[in-house]
Amino acid sequence: MTYIWKARFEANERAITAALNASQFGNLFANAFKNPSFVLPLPKDGDGYEMHFVQWSFVGPHTTHCMLTSLAEYKLHKEYAKPHTTLMFHQELLGDSGVVLMNGQLEQDVPLSVEEALLLVLNVQRFYGAMTASLSAERKLELLRAFTQGDSAFSMDKLIEEAASLD
Questions:
Q1: CA angle at residue 52 from 44 to 160, to 5 degrees?
Q2: Looking at residue 130, what is its pLDDT?
Q3: In the chain, what are the domain boundaries?
Q4: Sign of the CA dihedral 158, 163, 166, 167?
Q5: What is the C-alpha to C-alpha distance for residues 6 and 24, in angstroms, rounded to an integer?
Q6: Kind of pairing, strands 15-21 and 49-60?
Q7: How far is Cα 99 from Cα 105, in angstroms, rounded to an integer?
Q8: In angstroms, what CA-CA distances link 112 with 61, 68, 70?
C-alpha cells in the first residue's frame, strides 16, 4: 500500500509523501492537537536561520492538515498568509490497516527548495512525533509546550540546537 501511495505522486517533483503507522500518527496528532502552532528554524547558506511558522488544522474526522509558512509572510498577512508547504494526513485507513497516508506539496513560486521543505517536514516529525523515551525527545516536547503556553522557558537558541541535532 505504501509503495502504491508513493508511486501515485512520483511524477511530481514537489510532492512529499509518507505512510505512518498508528503509533507514529497517534503521537503526532496528540502533540499537534495540544500545540497547534510552532516555529521551526531553517538554516540559510551557513549564514543564520530563517524561521517558519507551523499551523495545524483539524478539518474533518479523517483529515488533518499541517501548513508551513515563512514567519515573515505570516507576520505580514496573519491568517491570510499563503503556506509554502501543506501536508495532508488521511486517516481513513487507520482503523482497518493501522496506516495513515500523508501527502504534501511545496508550492511553485516560493523561494524554497524541495530539500529545504523536506528538512522542515523532518523537523515537524521530530518535534511533533517525538517519543518521550529519550532526553532529546523530551527536550523537543518541552519546547513545543513552552511555545504554546508563551512560557519564558522557550528559547530560540535551544530550538535551533534541537532542530540541528542529529538525534
A1: 60
A2: 80
A3: 2-164
A4: positive
A5: 18
A6: unpaired
A7: 20
A8: 31, 11, 10
The phi and psi torsions of 120 (rounded to 5 degrees) equal -65, -45
**Grid coordinates representing 49?**
536561520
Sort residue 78 into left (φ over 0), alpha (ψ -120 to 50) or beta.
left
Please give the pLDDT value at position 18: 96
DSSP string, the chain: -HHHHHHHTTT-TTEEEEEEEHHHHHHHHHHHHH--EEEEEEE-TTS-EEEEEEEEEEEETTEEEEEEEEHHHHHHHGGGPPPSEEEEEE-TTHHHHSEEEEEEEE-SSSS--HHHHHHHHHHHHHHHT--TTSHHHHHHHHHHHHHHHT-TT--HHHHHHHHH---
pTM above 0.70, yes or no: yes
Give pLDDT tens digits along the chain (167 positions): 888 999 999 999 999 999 999 999 999 999 999 999 999 999 998 789 999 999 999 999 999 999 999 999 999 999 899 999 999 999 999 999 999 999 999 999 999 999 999 999 999 999 999 876 789 999 999 999 999 999 998 999 999 999 999 87
Indicate the length of the chain as a whole number.
Answer: 167
